[in-house]
Design a protein that fits this description.
Number of helices: 7
Helix content: 25-40%
Structural class: alpha/beta
CATH topology: Stationary-phase Survival Protein Sure Homolog, Chain: A
CATH architecture: 3-Layer(aba) Sandwich
Length: 269
């Protein structure tokens, strides 16, 4: 067995993903964590990309123990997080790692749709430090490229376990290019981009999403998309979940209340 780093040997990480228990990204994440700290993985039985932070509401969820430190869940990534922290683990994780995802999580649509990000957000909502790691291609171009993603994840985990999350950050999201032009990380804001027409007709009245490639995305300099795709660097994005009420609502509230008062005067509601 690999010797665990002495300063971190008492730490415990919860590892989850959305690509499923058989993903090579999960295996590479395990290999990296095994060298530095203790961990338990809880992963979906099936591929669950694109489900966001969805929970399974319409049926029971089966959980199966896998080996000494794993569980397989017939549910979503967010199910995995909730079941882990409230039912499966005998300890509170020092960190939740979601990944290594195969495919980009770039731009606002990915952040809203991604099961990888969804699991990380679920963990953060329960006051757990949270890290999401994505290798930005659904196909692994080389073992070496995925190992680079695992190395980045390892360094991020070491930092968080030793120093805590960066100030004001609820979820730390890291996107690693499939081809690194430069072994360098850069801070990135989320690109405000949408997918466009991503469906193709595979037979009459039947549609499927096209293959997922990074050329679907566009982004200005300083965004996660631009840093990964155009600069070939590692994009690091800090997400804060302190949702704030924004916008000038006085006129809208005045209009709504005036209509409701008129309705109330004419009939009881």
């Amino acid at each position: 067995m690999d010797k665990i780093s002495e300063p971190l040997k008492h730490k415990r990480v919860l590892l989850v993903n959305d690509d499923g228990i058989g993903s090579i990204g999960l295996k590479k994440a395990e290999e990296a964590l095994r060298k530095i700290t203790g961990y338990i993985y809880v992963a979906p039985f099936r591929h669950k990309s694109g489900v966001g932070k969805a929970l399974t509401l319409t049926r029971p969820i089966k959980v199966v123990k896998v080996g000494e430190n794993g569980f397989c869940v017939d549910g979503t990534p967010a199910d995995c997080v909730l079941l882990a922290i409230y039912k499966l683990l005998s300890f509170k994780p020092d960190l939740v790692v979601s990944g290594i995802n195969l495919g980009p999580n770039l731009g606002v649509e990915d952040y809203l749709n991604s099961g990888t990000i969804g699991a990380a957000i679920e963990a953060a909502l329960h006051n757990l430090p949270s890290l999401a790691v994505s290798y930005c291609d659904v196909k692994v171009k080389s073992e070496r490229a995925l190992e680079a993603a695992a190395l980045v994840m390892k360094y991020a985990v070491e930092y968080i376990l030793k120093r805590g999350m960066p100030k004001g950050v609820s979820v730390l999201s890291i996107n690693i290019p499939p081809i690194l032009k430069k072994l360098e990380a850069a801070p990135a804001r989320i690109a405000n981009v949408v997918y466009g027409d991503i469906f193709m007709e595979i037979r009459k009245n039947t549609y499927a999403i096209k293959s997922w490639k990074i050329n679907l995305y566009n982004g200005e300099p300083g965004t996660d998309v631009h840093i990964v795709r155009d600069e070939g660097k590692i994009a690091v994005t800090g997400i804060n979940l302190g949702f704030q009420v924004v916008g000038e609502l006085n006129s809208f509230i005045h209009h709504l209340n005036s209509r409701l008062r008129g309705k109330q005067e004419n009939q009881r509601i």
